[in-house]
Amino acid sequence: NRIGIEDLIAALASNADAPRYMVVVELPRRRAYMHLDTLFTPVDRELALVFPPVLIQTGSERATVYEVDIRSKHRSFEQRADLLSCLAARGARFVPISCGGDDAIAQQREQWTDGANALALAPGVIAMYDRNAATMVELGRNGFRLVDAEDLVLGREEVDLDAGERVCISFTSHELSRARGGPHCLTHPLSRDP
After folding, report:
1. 185 is catalytic
2. Is the pTM of this model over 0.70?
3. Rounded distance between C-alpha atoms, residue 179 and residue 113, angstroms
């Protein structure tokens, strides 16, 4: 909520190593949009999976994006056009890959099964639910080699995380996706090695 965000900004402002800007994305209040990573996930240095109805297109479902200068004495939430252009203005440019491809019905269906949510194992090497077939087709159109996790485990396929190749590893998700959490959501460690 707004008070929590303002508290975070105040805490960051007291730290000399803190970033200069914070981008705040106000999502529509729907269960399907629990977290930003259900709508936007970087999958390579310059590519991101996105759910277009909320992040790209206009309409009632569109997210509202604000930017705050943390170091400013007069902090204000400045509204921006959209997330991708706001990030680009700060040097983080992402080409969007549509969750569900170009079909509006497939976009809705695959966003619900976390098609915009993938775990990046290395730049350009991701893992995602196998049920998001239209999203994987779109990834293939954007240079990703599609690999089934079973083939990888059984040695029929190989993936080198350091090769610089774009790869999407799909894995079975029958029960996982029912719990409403994607691969990125389900893999955040509670503590990290500094």
Report:
1. yes
2. yes
3. 10
